[in-house]
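Hello,

Our lab assistant flagged a job as stuck in the queue for most of the afternoon. It eventually completed. Since we weren't sure the result was trustworthy after the delay, we are filing this so someone can double-check. Below is the sequence as submitted and the structure that was eventually returned. Let us know if re-running is recommended.
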Amino acid sequence: MQDTAHIVRKLGLQEAAKVASVQGKAAEYVRLATTRLGQGGLGQGELCKGAACVELACQALGVQADAALLMRCGGTNEKVYRNAKAALQKVLGVVPKATARDLCIQFGCARHDQSVRACLAAYKERFVRSLPEVQRGHVDFSRAVFLAAAFYLVARKNKVAVDRVKLLSPLGVTATEFAQVCASMSDLCHDLVGTEQRKRKAEELAEEQRALIDRTGAADDGDEASCSEDEVLDEGMVGHRINAKKQKQREYAAWKDTQLKEGAEAKKKAKETLTEKKLKQAVLSFAAGGAQLCSRRQQRGQQQQRRAAGRRSSSST
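-- returned structure --
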């Protein structure tokens, strides 16, 4: 990770007061992130943590900064930088508050404000209704990912072009969680967003339900919480069923391990069988050689005995 002061100098800010305030804020963000995530908590994003903290500091102080320059200073590709920045926004609590009207105005479709609100309200109601009674009181839809998904699906239905990077990056939303919420919202609100309800297996449905329960905070005390590091490192693709893809990967990994173990056992068994055969052949050949040697010695002894007997008979005559 590069020094934040060095990165701030590269921005070329003219006012010394702005430089000092941005440096101080960025250094504070770096310390907080290290304290809350630990060393290496961002994975590959550790390389660009300093640059991402500088950008967040500029946003917090209202200082104009070149985002492309900061991304180059981070030394990583665009996807890693975006994921690291989104994770830092969550950890530091600097996610900007946005409304459906703000997003509609930003992307030039103010007339769809009511449609976005209706879609989000319907999703909240239907999702809560699908939960067990115990979990309904713990649901939290305040995260920006739900608003972003509702706006994106309504805009897509009305053929409004939306740049997903510009939509997700300011809100601190990763591509993985956005794809999961979009998939769930497309199923529960297919009548409002103009999509067909997908046919899914029970295992896939249960896994998606668990992931969304983790994101809404409705998990029981015994439920397993979602892993923030997976959200940061998983590059995910919008529109794909992430959970089904992960399930297939796990099944393939389990099948591969089984095949490798079976192959190793078969090789070991074949090697043992081959060794036994070689040992048996060696014993048999040794026994055969010993028998031939004994028979030759017996023949020689008999010949010597016959010769000695012939000599004795000739000497007696």
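-- support follow-up --
The delay was a queue issue, not a problem with the job. The result is valid. The CA atoms of residues 1 and 49 lie 6 Å apart. Confidence is low (pLDDT under 50) at residues 220-242, 281-287.
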